[in-house]
Specification:
- The structure is a homodimer of 231-residue chains.
- By secondary structure, chain A is mainly α.
- Chain A has a single domain (4-228), classed as Heme oxygenase-like (Heme Oxygenase, Chain A, Up-down Bundle).
- Chain A contains 11 helices and no strands.
- Chain A has helices spanning 4-16, 26-32, 38-65, 69-83, 91-101, 106-110, 117-132, 135-141, 148-162, 172-195, 199-228.
């Protein structure tokens, strides 16, 4: 078991990964500065949708690998948040509405026609990670949610200011994450500090969070590159 | 796509697998005839608990492999049924209470000390099947629930008649399955008939259900054998 000091250092090291979070990516900075065209925002939303629609499968893979009922009982809420419990509900639906607010159809998001290879590889790597790595590492990889509320708050302000042509209800997903992400991050942090007791396990958790930062960063690389060609 | 006649034949072939269901196993017949000792019932319950506690992970593996939100929204209820949403809830908890009613402690069920190798292999094979086979086949493998309500009704009558020393609340799991199993089987049958359109997919679904019958049957083989040695 880790001492209290070791746990504090571990949490600090996890939080320090924020320096690798995708809010610092040039494409993301351009987005929040109001410098993206409608077409670039569409490319971003359509590609990011591939990430969104795979989240429930990633989280179900964690459930499938987790032997603790009390962890599963809370983790399952993430799946419900994304899928909803009925038509018209859930984060995936909210993202489809964001796409519509940006001028995309549900069909062109749903059939993944705009998804570029780099995004597909990154998202698939994330799902495979959750399937194949120890469940505690997969939980740790979700800890980018520690950094998400700040990003979401900044994004909401930026979108309302710079892209007033986007209908406000289209931004509902970002708003929902302002409360969901802290709740999810708190639980994930509890789990990781409780179940990663050895130095090797803590190193594994840090590497998992670093990997996840790479997933998000490389998605923006691929999206930015595809837009640069005017595709 | 299958014709209506082909679908009817497919459903009939699935239902016909009932001839391979574990209610016909000699150990199961002996149980319902009141011929088992307290010790044999304990062995059965402790081993069967290994199956119960793995069900949420099996169902989460199906969620992880299923690309359809509307299927996931219903399938996730199975996980909630087994795990519950809070301490003291759910099918796994109900099975622990059954074990207590039979004279087992939670500790000896929870640490799997009574689980015999044949049961472990069979249950692990079932979870691996759900992880690695097409999600539609994993859904088809759950269709033993078509046969479960009859078994549960018969078991309830038999236990109340032959084993009156078991506290009635200990039988709550069996009672809950009288309503859950038909609901679950109906959904699984809808999914399998909707998504197994080709002859190869229907053959895969039939093989999956046959495999699942083997899982349940071989568990009873192993439990019976372990009891025969007086272990």
């Amino acid at each position: 078991m880790a001492t209290a000091t070791e746990t504090d250092e571990f949490v600090a090291a996890l939080r320090a990964q924020s320096r690798r979070y995708h809010d610092r990516h040039p494409f993301h900075r351009a987005m929040n500065a109001g410098a993206l065209t409608r077409r670039q925002l569409q490319a971003w939303a359509a590609n990011r949708f591939y990430y969104q629609e795979n989240l429930p499968r990633k989280d179900a893979a964690i459930l499938a690998n987790c032997p603790h009922r009390e962890v599963r009982r809370r983790w399952i809420l993430r799946i419900v948040d994304q899928d909803g419990t009925a038509d018209g509900e859930g984060g995936i639906e909210a993202w489809l509405r964001l796409g519509e607010a940006l001028g995309l159809t549900r069909e062109e998001m749903g059939d993944d026609r705009h998804v570029v290879p780099g995004v597909r590889f990154a998202v698939d790597a994330y799902v495979t990670f959750a399937r194949t790595r120890p469940w505690t590492e997969a939980v740790a990889s979700s800890l980018t949610e520690l950094f998400a509320p700040d990003l979401m708050a900044e994004r909401l302000t930026a979108f309302e200011r710079h892209y007033p042509w986007i209908d406000r209800p289209g931004l509902a997903y970002f708003r929902s994450r302002l409360t969901q992400a802290p709740r999810d991050a708190e639980h994930a942090l509890e789990v990781v500090t409780a179940y990663c007791g050895s130095p090797a396990e803590r190193a594994g958790a840090l590497a998992a969070l670093s990997f996840k930062c790479d997933v998000l960063w490389s998605m923006l690389d691929a999206i930015e590159r595809s837009c640069a060609d005017g595709r």
